């Protein structure tokens, strides 16, 4: 094995990253590109994506930006068609777009409920529907491998008061991933769910409930949060494993976070 292949184990692969304009998605795009993949970065904020692509290229990587909203099924299918036309299709998909809007259920914050369901569940399914055929095709060609990595949360497993709707959407992501692994694993498509504890990203900035804001601020003072780069490193590790190895569920916790 050459030094180049060791340093860039994802050379020749095409990685689509949703929610790539910040946080885990942004860091993962940079990591996957550094490992040799062509990063297709997808999000709504075109200016952020332009800066990200420029940074990846400056560091010797390869990337393409596609501006799209994952809740728009037609736009996501058009993005998939573009990836197929320009790059021959994706063989790595990081489903990372999401939003966290905790609030007591009795507040009846129905708009926030719907936003979380639309993005964390329906958006996820739009992307899966558009790109899974490409993953299956890639894995079936010449002994290839493909990866579907879904960003879930420790909230899929543990109980956090006032996070019921968000936690429910993430439980969906984790359980869906288990089912998809059974369907796609025999076709050499690896399926993994990443379940991070608290990561310092823009998610916390979207929170409007004061009780949740206070809880998050208190936790930040008490423990050292994970960084997006911590999660990106894990995603790069998963995608670089031998074809026969599939870590189906990875929980990544800050050392000081008890649950």
Write a concise synopsis of the structure shown.
The chain has 259 residues and is α/β, with parallel strands linked by helices.
Shape: globular
Architecture per CATH nomenclature, i.e. the level-2 architecture: 3-Layer(aba) Sandwich
The CATH topology comes to: Rossmann fold
Report the portion of residues in β strands: 15-25%
Question: Regarding CATH, which class?
Answer: Alpha Beta
Report mean pLDDT, rounded to a whole number.
93
Low-confidence stretches: none
Number of domains: 1
Main sheet strand line-up: 3-2-1-4-5-6-7
State the secondary-structure class.
alpha/beta
What is the gyration radius calculated from CA atoms?
Answer: 18 Å
Considering the protein shown, what is the CATH homologous superfamily? NAD(P)-binding Rossmann-like Domain
Summarize the amount of helix as a percent range. 40-55%
End-to-end separation in angstroms reads 41 Å
**Largest pleated sheet:** 7 strands, parallel
InterPro entries: NAD(P)-bd_dom_sf, Sc_DH/Rdtase_CS, SDR_fam
GO molecular function: oxidoreductase activity, acting on the CH-OH group of donors, NAD or NADP as acceptor
Family: Belongs to the short-chain dehydrogenases/reductases (SDR) family.
Organism: Streptomyces echinatus
Task: Describe what this molecule looks like in 3D.
A 7-stranded parallel β-sheet has the order 3-2-1-4-5-6-7, with helices on both faces. The relative contact order is 0.15. The longest helix is centred in the middle third of the chain and has 30 residues, at 110-139. The chain has helices spanning 3-7, 23-34, 46-58, 73-87, 110-139, 164-184, 203-206, 210-222, 228-240; strands at 14-18, 38-43, 62-67, 92-95, 146-151, 189-196, 249-252. Helix 5 links the parallel strand 4 (92-95) and strand 5. With 259 residues, the protein is an alpha/beta fold. It has a single domain, classed as Rossmann fold.
């Amino acid at each position: 094995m050459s030094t180049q292949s060791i340093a860039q184990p994802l050379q020749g692969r095409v990685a689509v990253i949703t929610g790539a304009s910040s946080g885990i998605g942004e860091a993962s795009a940079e990591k996957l590109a550094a490992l040799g993949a062509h990063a297709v970065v997808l999000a709504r904020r075109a200016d952020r994506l332009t800066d990200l692509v420029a940074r990846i290229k400056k560091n010797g990587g390869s990337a393409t930006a596609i501006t799209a909203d994952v809740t728009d099924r037609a736009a996501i299918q058009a993005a998939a068609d573009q990836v197929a036309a320009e790059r021959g299709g994706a063989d790595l998909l990081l489903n990372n777009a999401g939003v966290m809007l905790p609030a007591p259920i009795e507040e009846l914050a129905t708009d926030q409920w719907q936003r979380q369901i639309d993005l964390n569940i329906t958006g996820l399914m739009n992307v899966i529907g558009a790109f899974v055929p490409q993953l299956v095709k890639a894995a079936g060609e010449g002994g290839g491998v493909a990866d579907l990595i879904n960003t879930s949360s420790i909230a899929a497993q543990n109980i956090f008061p006032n996070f019921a709707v968000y936690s429910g959407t993430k439980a969906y992501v984790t359980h869906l991933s288990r089912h998809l692994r059974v369907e796609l694993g025999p076709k050499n498509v690896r399926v993994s769910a990443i379940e991070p504890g608290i990561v310092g990203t823009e998610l916390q900035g979207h929170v409007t409930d004061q009780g949740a804001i206070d809880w998050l601020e208190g936790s930040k003072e008490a423990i050292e949060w994970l960084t997006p780069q911590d999660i990106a490193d894990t995603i790069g590790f998963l995608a670089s494993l031998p074809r026969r190895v599939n870590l189906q569920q990875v929980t990544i916790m800050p050392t000081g976070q008890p649950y």
